[in-house]
């Protein structure tokens, strides 16, 4: 499985938690969300500011622009999604094919220059697109990718990869930071209001539904050396916190990493989650179909959630580390799967 962003620059313990995510072949219980989830920018009537921009990024770095950025290069999928939600099409983006597979919340138009992997972009290709701003996801203010980009005479906006203290707030802060840099604050306000309204409506719908249990766990996984590794999204994960914001209770109470709230376990560990409902990614890694491997495991089949048909694949293409539009897809999936 592809690494989550610039895992090569991470410490070993955190990198271990982030080894999943990103390929092209997919299978799921349900198909990808409808395109209506994407922004129809032809109908957008929000204004774009025109004056100079002075902002502080996620790591206290000052970014000064003579005017809002128009030609942006974006090196991480959430931030690509965010730009498109704001009706700003990047001139360059990292791992275009991967984005199209893993993030269906927005569609990246043809013609955007692919600058290679998220962790090791081709800088010559990137700066050959003449961007007026490069947007990158970082884990510390001293990340190597920031140092590399700063060698060029183009402003760099560093956004925070994750914050387990409040992942929903961090997701929205990243979105609003990109809006500020591109002069799209008015559009951002509309999107955030829609997200909050969607969350409240979904919470009410689940409260009114007769769900079997409000205990849940979301997970993904991979196969390595013939063994299945499972990654539960625990406290501090975006998927976990969105579920809890709907009134559910995250059943994973094991250890998690301090940034993303991601845990690690095996099939035996999942048998200890009682009557919790299981949710899992519907996108399959061709390097190893973990969902198929689980389906063939006798111990897995005896877990209450599986035996009672309370183990549900999310629609394919929902990015579990995305922006407001992905988060709305997550909310819709939780409601649809719990109330169907």
UniProtKB/TrEMBL annotation:
<feature type="coiled-coil region">
    <location>
        <begin position="185"/>
        <end position="212"/>
    </location>
</feature>
<keyword id="KW-0175">Coiled coil</keyword>
<keyword id="KW-0813">Transport</keyword>
<dbReference type="GO" id="GO:1901678">
    <property type="term" value="P:iron coordination entity transport"/>
</dbReference>
<dbReference type="InterPro" id="IPR002491">
    <property type="entry name" value="ABC_transptr_periplasmic_BD"/>
</dbReference>
<dbReference type="Pfam" id="PF01497">
    <property type="entry name" value="Peripla_BP_2"/>
</dbReference>
<dbReference type="InterPro" id="IPR051313">
    <property type="entry name" value="Bact_iron-sidero_bind"/>
</dbReference>
<feature type="signal peptide">
    <location>
        <begin position="1"/>
        <end position="28"/>
    </location>
</feature>
<feature type="domain" description="Fe/B12 periplasmic-binding">
    <location>
        <begin position="71"/>
        <end position="340"/>
    </location>
</feature>
<protein>
    <submittedName>
        <fullName>Iron-siderophore ABC transporter substrate-binding protein</fullName>
    </submittedName>
</protein>
<comment type="similarity">
    <text>Belongs to the bacterial solute-binding protein 8 family.</text>
</comment>
<keyword id="KW-0732">Signal</keyword>
<dbReference type="GO" id="GO:0030288">
    <property type="term" value="C:outer membrane-bounded periplasmic space"/>
</dbReference>
């Amino acid at each position: 499985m592809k690494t989550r962003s610039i895992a090569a620059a991470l410490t070993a313990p955190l990198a271990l938690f982030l080894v999943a995510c990103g390929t092209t072949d997919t299978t799921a219980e349900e198909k990808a969300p409808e395109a209506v989830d994407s922004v129809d920018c032809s109908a957008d009537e929000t204004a774009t500011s025109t004056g100079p921009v002075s902002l502080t990024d996620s790591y206290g770095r000052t970014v000064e622009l003579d005017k809002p950025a128009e030609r942006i290069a974006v090196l991480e999928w959430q931030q690509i999604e965010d730009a498109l939600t704001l009706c700003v099409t990047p001139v360059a983006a990292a791992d275009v094919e991967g984005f199209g597979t893993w993030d269906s919340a927005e569609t990246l138009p043809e013609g955007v220059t692919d600058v290679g992997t998220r962790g090791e972009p081709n800088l010559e290709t990137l700066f050959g697109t003449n961007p007026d701003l490069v947007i990158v996801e970082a884990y510390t203010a001293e990340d190597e990718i920031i140092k590399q980009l700063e060698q060029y005479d183009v402003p760099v906006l560093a956004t925070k990869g994750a914050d387990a203290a409040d992942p929903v707030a961090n997701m929205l802060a990243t979105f609003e930071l990109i809006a500020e840099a591109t002069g799209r604050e008015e559009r951002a306000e509309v999107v955030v209001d829609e997200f909050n309204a969607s969350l409240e409506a979904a919470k009410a719908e689940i409260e009114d539904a007769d769900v079997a249990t409000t205990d849940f766990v979301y997970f993904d996984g991979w196969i390595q050396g013939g063994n299945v590794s499972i990654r539960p999204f625990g406290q501090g994960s975006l998927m976990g916190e969105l579920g809890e914001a709907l009134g559910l209770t995250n059943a994973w109470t094991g250890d998690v990493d301090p940034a993303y709230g991601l845990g690690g376990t095996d099939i035996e560990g999942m048998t200890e989650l009682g009557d919790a409902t299981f949710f899992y990614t519907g996108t399959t890694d061709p390097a190893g179909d973990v969902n198929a491997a689980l389906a063939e495991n006798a111990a897995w089949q005896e877990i209450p959630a599986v035996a009672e048909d309370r183990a549900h694949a999310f629609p394919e293409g929902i990015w579990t580390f995305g922006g407001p539009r992905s988060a709305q897809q997550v909310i819709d999936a939780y409601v649809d799967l719990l109330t169907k």
